[in-house]
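Anyone up for a design puzzle?
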């Protein structure tokens, strides 16, 4: 008989064995590395109430596990709770026995019991989680450009190095930005500490009037075993409140040309190429007819609504672009039967109510994965319709539905878990 339970201290050693087998890249298989990982996981669970580890048991044998996170996220300027899951791992001997599905089912259960309506994860395989109802989040664009591609401004006078004692100034800056950015998670204490505990990190900030208004975390990666002067600069985190802040940080990056080959910048900003000078990645590759290879794009973060009615109730404070219509939303969800339903949504001047019954203008039928991406603003209603991912009973209402769901600012998330 199988069960999922919160891990007790004595089970962590076995869970680390499973995790290292499932993800060899997180640590080597040496006893020392496993002991360090066990100590870290135990510290997380014992000292951070927002992180908990769960195990999948067959009778008294541990066959898998996962790490759950309690986050807070900005959705249309409202801070809501959101559940996260990471490190979903199954023993190598028990692969293809639906262990991962059982863990994810329990993940849903934990957060449904907490009355959390929305969850997220980083997939080991996007197609696997897509079938489980997770919709795609924002793409990540990885640029690899020369330092001279960053604009050079008139000064760097407001920049300084940060030390661990500055972490709460960083948190204040980050959370001010997160409060204005749809999709951003609030910074947790453990994330904040991790920035300063990594000996490879450099942290510089723009400080003015005793207030940090932007910062950058970066490290170096050597590009040659025989030439110690050949290095790339890796931007880990770059946040800014004003164009002035961005320009000073950019001026710093521009000034590194004497010892930096290229700068790696991962960003979810679709239009950052308007800021950079030469966005070519150095490969010389041309995409027909003449499109120069610049960023490499990747799919990562995925979202899922686990309680459709509860989620739309949370959005009652949001204005859906002044739209006025009544529509029947029919959701297909093969995993959560309580989500496999139809609800009646009435919008008046952009404000919604969920009705028990009544007439409606149009019905739309959509899978929970696409709905999760649609409401976050990753994709538009018209795009989903043209891709055959939504059925509309009366096509004359496609434009109205497109306006209702349209999001002017796509979500951004810089939180890893």
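Challenge accepted. My sequence:
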């Amino acid at each position: 008989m199988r069960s999922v339970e919160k891990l007790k201290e004595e089970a962590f050693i076995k869970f680390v064995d499973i995790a290292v087998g499932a993800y060899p890249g997180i640590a080597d298989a040496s006893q020392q590395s496993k002991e360090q990982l066990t100590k870290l996981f135990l510290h997380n669970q014992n000292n951070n109430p927002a992180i908990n580890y769960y195990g999948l048991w067959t009778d008294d044998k541990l066959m898998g596990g996962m790490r759950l996170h309690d986050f807070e996220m900005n959705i249309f300027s409202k801070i809501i709770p959101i559940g996260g899951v990471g490190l979903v791992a199954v023993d190598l001997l028990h692969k293809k026995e639906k262990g991962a599905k059982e863990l994810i089912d329990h993940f849903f259960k934990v957060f449904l019991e907490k009355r959390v309506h929305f969850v997220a994860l980083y997939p080991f395989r996007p197609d696997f989680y897509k079938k489980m109802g997770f919709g795609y989040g924002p793409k990540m664009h990885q640029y690899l450009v020369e330092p001279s591609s960053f604009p050079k401004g008139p000064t760097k006078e407001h920049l300084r190095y940060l030390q661990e004692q500055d972490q709460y100034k960083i948190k204040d800056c980050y959370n001010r930005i997160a409060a204005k950015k749809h999709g951003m998670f609030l910074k947790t204490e453990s994330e904040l500490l991790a920035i300063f505990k990594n000996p490879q990190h450099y942290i510089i900030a723009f400080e003015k009037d005793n207030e940090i208004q932007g910062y950058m975390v970066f490290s170096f990666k050597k590009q040659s075993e025989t030439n110690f002067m050949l290095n790339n600069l890796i931007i880990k985190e770059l946040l800014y409140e004003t164009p002035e802040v961005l320009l000073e940080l950019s001026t710093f990056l521009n000034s590194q040309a004497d010892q930096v080959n290229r700068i790696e910048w991962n960003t979810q900003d679709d239009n950052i190429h308007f800021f950079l000078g030469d966005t070519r990645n150095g490969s010389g590759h041309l995409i027909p007819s003449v499109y120069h290879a610049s960023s490499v794009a990747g799919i990562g973060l995925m979202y899922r609504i686990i309680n459709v009615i509860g989620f739309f109730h949370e959005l009652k404070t949001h204005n859906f672009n002044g739209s006025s219509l009544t529509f029947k939303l029919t959701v297909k969800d093969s995993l959560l039967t309580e989500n496999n339903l139809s609800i009646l949504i009435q919008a008046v001047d952009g404000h919604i109510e969920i009705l028990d019954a009544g007439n409606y203008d149009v019905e739309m039928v959509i899978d929970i994965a696409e709905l999760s991406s649609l409401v976050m603003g990753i994709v538009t209603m018209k795009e989903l319709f043209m891709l055959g991912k939504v059925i509309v009973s009366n096509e004359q209402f496609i434009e109205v539905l497109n306006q209702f769901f349209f999001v002017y600012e796509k979500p951004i998330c810089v939180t890893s878990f």
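A detail worth pointing out: The CA atoms of residues 316 and 352 lie 6 Å apart.
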